[in-house]
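Let us begin with a simple case.
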Amino acid sequence: MDLSRPLMTVTPTLDGDVLAVLANHDGIFTTGQLHRLLARHSEEGIRKVLRRLTKQGVVLSDRVGNAFAYRLNREHLAAEHIIGLARIQKTLLERIEDRLESWELPPVYAAVFGSAARGGMTEDSDVDLLLIRPDDADDDQWETQVHELAVEVTRWTGNDTRPLEFTEAELADRGYAEAVLRDVARDGLTVAGSRTWLTGHLRKGKG
């Protein structure tokens, strides 16, 4: 799955990219505005897609001066499903959060990072997951939880899941010497704990 182009799960065409933009915003867009957001596609291609989607009724067009502006028809029967697909990344993060909250040994901090967080994911990318483990966690119980979560995330997305684990003590020792932790602090999507806690510990490690 490509979380940055979520409707590719059902359609690899430009239609999915256009619908994803319209579904994630309540405002209206001209063809030119959509082209600036979807620069990989031609403006003429976007215009053709909008005409087709307008005929289907899933997109509404409004005349604004000499141009037309477009928005998702949120009352259309297909709209709730389009919106659900467009918000797949949010749904994934919420599912991971729910699983981590249910753990008997919850992580001190956890975040999705890498391409899944930066918006550069493809169907071949891994889902990278940072897990900061309590120093006193039971090894077997912790490893079972992590394995089960990795299996679930892969089943949800179709992508391999790669947990990266540190104990609290290891995090303090590594600090900003670890490039991956700097990446998580900058771009990671927190799913357990507080980013402030993470950056505070990294500063301690740097000192």
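The second case is a distinct protein. As before, the sequence precedes its structure tokens.
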Amino acid sequence: MFSRLNLDRPFLNLYITTLLSFEEVPTNSILQNVIGVFLTATIVSICVYYVLRYLESIYVKYKKKPYFIHFYPTLKKLPANLQAFLDENDFYTSLGKKRKRYFSHRTFRFLEKTHFVGREGLVVDDFMRMQVSIMVIQLTFGMRHYLLEHLNTIVLYPTSFYSILNQTENIGEFNPRSKALALSWKDFQKGNMHQDKGKSLGIHEITHAIHYNSIKNNNISCEIFYDTFLELEQYLGDEEIRKNIVDTRILRDYAYTDKFEFIAVLVEVFMESPMELKEKFPEIYYYVVQMLNFKYFEK
């Protein structure tokens, strides 16, 4: 064999020595062990995540709620000047001590990730930022995933504005392409101060953002919202129920524009006049409770 390779003795000795030296090198270096452990842990973690996610989906199917809502390794605190706005909010003050800390933390995180922009000379101050943020956090307070992936910019106008997107004069719109929510501050405050029964621009437009988010994402909060919305659609397929809703005029006419406007107006009524909705249409009321996992009116 070696003569066929034309190897002389010195070269042969070097060849054998090299082979022996390779045998002495550990087959698994420290780096290889670390990589192996990391990959194994990653694969196991992914498998555990999907198993738990599947089990939670089954749990949701029967219990109509997630395993848990609040879990934070550390809780953020708002600075005192911003916390003062929270302390004046009726919903926040109705919460227990623990939930107040959760609400404050979520508000901090929302402010941290959201860019606020003023248009047409409007200067956005802390009061404006907090009023919008509080409304978003209230609407998503029953959801585990409260930071909406498709919303990262809030644009405030003094009053109505011309929408390039819709080619109309608007007081509010959600633009999923730019992940932006545009609001007339005047009209937002009108709803926020409960000056127009059953109507709230902020609730309406934020609901659009939540709805869009539920279509585009598959986390447990989005799954609950979207699946419950489909159940509600099926329930409203009954002609007599639809007629009763129209006849009571509990929802303004704009609700019947399309299914997206219907749910936005319905959530407005739910948040502004929950007991009236519960009294007249208890089934629909509980669909909204389930959709938002919002049980804070149940006392």
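The two ends are 91 Å apart (CA to CA). Residues 30-63 form the longest helix (34 residues).
Keep these points in mind for the review questions at the end of the chapter.
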